[in-house]
């Protein structure tokens, strides 16, 4: 994971490799984020006899925040191929740094017990917090946040606004700069994945 983070942060890493790394790191983080999901005991017939096993007992929804969260979906689905995936579109207003919602593809009512929000960057925390507000209003029961790099300001904001939400990050960086970018971070995660900017 640390090795992959060093490649991801490198400004010389090209778009294709960057996308692959986001996906691979996303899978690794999902392993950590799913260790406490409840399971139910079940017996399975093997060719040699009966085995006591465990199966997931709750349904899980992945909620990528557009755009940058999209890159974590495939990696997360490697871990949990039967998840439902719902998209929330937010962008940060460049001046105010506040999130602006432009897309919401949640079903009419909550159909899962656990929602896992995916977004590589937790900067001011505004986008993550707003997404979780939307999910709570919609009826989500349990919510986890999985991100690749966070700033202390973003973690503090998320913990204050949503103390019930577990946060999983690949790295906690030093600070935000005066235009709201994580330092040292990796730059703009959306632009680097999609070759824009
Ligand atoms: C980035 C990132 C987060 C947000 C984090 O998205 O993917 O969603 O910024 O910043 P915050 O914690 O201060 O809200 P951006 O708004 O750049 O949109 P994009 O993913 O479409 O590039
Ligand atoms: N969004 C990004 O993509 N990068 C940052 O450093 C902060 C917000």
Itemize the secondary structure elements and their pairings.
Layout: H1 2-9, H2 15-33, E1 39-46, E2 49-56, E3 60-66, H3 73-79, E4 84-85, E5 88-92, E6 99-104, E7 114-118, E8 121-122, H4 126-138, E9 142-150, H5 152-161, E10 166-172, E11 175-176, E12 182-183, H6 189-194
Parallel strand pairs: 3-4, 3-5, 3-7, 7-9, 8-9, 9-10
Antiparallel strand pairs: 1-2, 5-6, 11-12
Helix pairs in contact: 1-2, 2-3
The structure holds 1-O-pyrophosphono-5-O-phosphono-alpha-D-ribofuranose (PRP) and uracil.
Question: Any idea of the CATH topology?
Answer: Rossmann fold
- Whole-number average pLDDT? 96
Strand content: 25-35%
Major pleated sheet: 8 strands, mixed
Tally of distinct domains = 1
Helices and strands: which structural class?
A: alpha/beta
**Share of helix among residues?**
25-40%
- CA-CA gap between termini: 27 Å
CATH architecture: 3-Layer(aba) Sandwich
CATH class: Alpha Beta
- What radius of gyration results from the CA coordinates? 17 Å
How many alpha or pi helices? 6
């Amino acid at each position: 994971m640390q090795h992959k983070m060093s490649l991801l942060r490198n400004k010389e890493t090209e778009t294709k490799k960057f996308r692959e790394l986001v996906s691979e790191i996303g899978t690794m983080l999902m392993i950590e984020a799913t260790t406490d999901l409840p399971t139910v005991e079940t017996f399975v017939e093997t060719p040699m006899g009966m085995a006591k096993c465990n199966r997931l007992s709750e349904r899980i929804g992945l909620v990528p925040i557009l755009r940058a969260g999209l890159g974590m979906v495939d990696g997360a689905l490697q871990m949990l191929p039967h998840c439902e995936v719902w998209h929330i579109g937010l962008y940060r207003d460049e001046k105010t740094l506040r999130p602006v919602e432009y897309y919401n593809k949640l079903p009419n009512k909550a159909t899962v017990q656990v929602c896992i929000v995916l977004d590589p960057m937790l900067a001011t925390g505004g986008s993550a917090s707003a997404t979780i507000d939307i999910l709570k209003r919609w009826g989500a029961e349990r919510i986890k946040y999985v991100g690749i790099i966070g700033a202390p300001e973003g973690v503090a904001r998320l913990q204050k606004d949503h103390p019930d939400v577990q946060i999983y990050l690949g790295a906690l960086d030093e600070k935000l700069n005066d235009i709201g970018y994580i330092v040292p971070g990796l730059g703009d995660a959306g632009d680097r994945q999609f070759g824009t900017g």
